[in-house]
Amino acid sequence: MAFAERVVAQALLVVMAALLQLSQAAVYKVGDSAGWTTIGNIDYKQWAATRTFQVGDIIRFEYNAQFHNVMRVTHPMYRACNASAPLATYTTGNDSIVITTKGHHYFFCGVPGHCQAGQKVDINVLRTAETAPTPGPSGLSPPSAPSVGVPAPSESNAISLKASKWSFSKLGLAMGAFAVLLSGFY
Ligand SMILES: *[C@@H]1O[C@H](CO)[C@@H](O)[C@H](O)[C@H]1NC(C)=O
Ligand SMILES: *[C@@H]1O[C@H](CO)[C@@H](O)[C@H](O)[C@H]1NC(C)=O
Ligand SMILES: [Cu+2]
């Protein structure tokens, strides 16, 4: 391989690796610096509304486990703050939940009074036009949000990583640019 070709090939690899990173999962800490709490009347609805969640993203609940917990519940239970039969309960104080399906994922704190006080959040992964909707009864998210204890992707990537849909067109653009560059070598 000629030197110039090798340089171009290596540069292409770097660009492709960078683009692949774009489709990596994001980590969202619920409530940001405030975390998961009843103090300060955090508007978790507003918090969720200003984010675009995707399948593969990680939702992290950080809280004092002496005072709070996390329950994943159905839509009716969410609306009623009914903690009698949660789909899943998390109690470590630092729970990372991988979102594996599209649609709504309802969580609240199961400590009496806390959900009513607003400690509840609806993580909604939009069903985009290009992917088929997940089958299942409406208003009930499929039971598939396992907790993970492994180190997660860094939070700083959360915003920039939302561009996965562009990856392929960007990849095409980048390759086109390199083809132009490449032609300059000969
Ligand atoms: C709470 O949910 C359980 C299980 O779905 C149900 O049996 C019960 O009636 C509900 N309680 C209230 C107060 O809605
Ligand atoms: C929670 O866990 C994540 C890793 O999953 C870690 O980066 C973070 O520092 C932990 N937070 C606290 C408050 O322990
Ligand atoms: Cu609580």
TrEMBL record:
The record's section on SUPFAM superfamilies has: Cupredoxins (SSF49503)
Cellular component per GO? Answer: plasma membrane
Q: Where is the signal peptide?
A: 1-25
Q: Which GO terms describe its molecular function?
A: electron transfer activity; metal ion binding
- The UniProt annotation puts the region (Disordered) at 132-151
Keywords on record: Copper, Glycoprotein, Metal-binding, Signal
Specify the Phytocyanin domain's residue ranges. 26-127
Tell me the protein's name.
Mavicyanin-like
Q: Which organism is it from?
A: Durio zibethinus (Durian)
